Amino acid sequence: MRHYTLPVAATLVASFISASAVAAPDSIRALGQPVGSGAIQNNLEQPFFENFAERTGVNTQIRYSPVDTSGVSDAEGLRVLRNNLFGIVSLRLSQISGDEPTLLGFDLVGQNPTYEIARQNVDAYLPVADARLQERFNSKLLGVWPAGPQVIFCEPEINGLDDLRGKRVRVYDNILGNFMSNLGAAPVPLSFPETQQGIARGVVDCGVTGPSSANAAGWPEVTSYVYPLPVQMAMNGYAINLNVWNQYSDEDQARLQAAFDELVDEIWAYSEELFEDASRCNTGGEPCENGRPYSLTSIEVNEQDLQTVNEAVEARSLPNFIELCDRTNPSCSADWKATVGANLGL
Q1: Residue 40 has pLDDT above 90, yes or no
Q2: How many other β-carbons are positioned within 10 Å of the β-carbon of residue 323?
Q3: Is 150-233+286-344 assigned to CATH 3.40.50.720?
Q4: Do 109 and 175 contact (CB within 8 A), yes or no?
Q5: Which of 63, 88, 99 is nearest to 139 (CA)?
Q6: Is the N or C terminus of the chain more exposed, i.e. has fewer CB atoms within 10 Å?
Q7: What topology does CATH give the domain 25-146+234-274?
Q8: How many Å apart are CA 181 and CA 295, to the nearest integer?
Q9: How many CB atoms sit inside 10 A of residue 53's CB?
Q10: Residue 129 in 3-state DSSP?
Q11: What is the pairing mode between strands 235-241 and 88-92?
């Protein structure tokens, strides 16, 4: 029988304990985007999680549930993540911003007029948001991506922002609600799955979402007009509970991060393709490759409204964001100004 000296035996025991401490979990529950939100969830997100071990190179199986089939509200993403009811969550950042207003800094009205500028702003701000989620929600932010430019769908006829005065408009965060209030509209917070029926029943006159999501959820069936003025990008993100994250070795953590980086890059590119295609589908244009054809009337965007949105960051959105965010996170606006604000020259 071989006998180990004490130092060698101690080293072996320590190695065994260390290996046990970072044993990858066999299975994780993941909460996804709503099925009704469309092609990003169907064609990229769900297949990624269904083939998680193959995509990441780690031996973990995922039990994946879209949020609208799980019994969980999309506003509860951070809470279920912190409590490890789901180990990974596809966060809808505007919807969860009531729990963490810092996340609003990814997408103030007028902040992200193009995909290129939006990506620069996201990359700059992600470390700020990640640090905040780690501190308050025991969660690591793995990446952030856009659903795409958010535009205005209405059943009553409109010809520009001035025509929203007096109308009830579905919004999904406080920054957008404040912007609509300043236009004289009545902002109505509705979850995405409720909005199509809300328009059909006259609960709201108009709603803001992306063309692809609107197409998938049947908004053109209950609206007649679309005003393709982008006001936001509707950012989303992937986050993992830190207790789950810390079960992985350093090598597996690197593999996970690389896989999510790849998925996020795919979604950024796909989001832009979907936006252009769905914009054509919704208004009877060709080619219409990924959605259902509809015949909405598209209203030409006027220069005054473009200027209103471009000026909204400094004039409206940023003051509103500072008021909301600095209450709970004293360094919030300073962090935003040092990252996104610097990118925008503010």
Answers
A1: yes
A2: 13
A3: no
A4: yes
A5: 88
A6: N
A7: D-Maltodextrin-Binding Protein; domain 2 (3.40.190)
A8: 29
A9: 12
A10: helix
A11: antiparallel
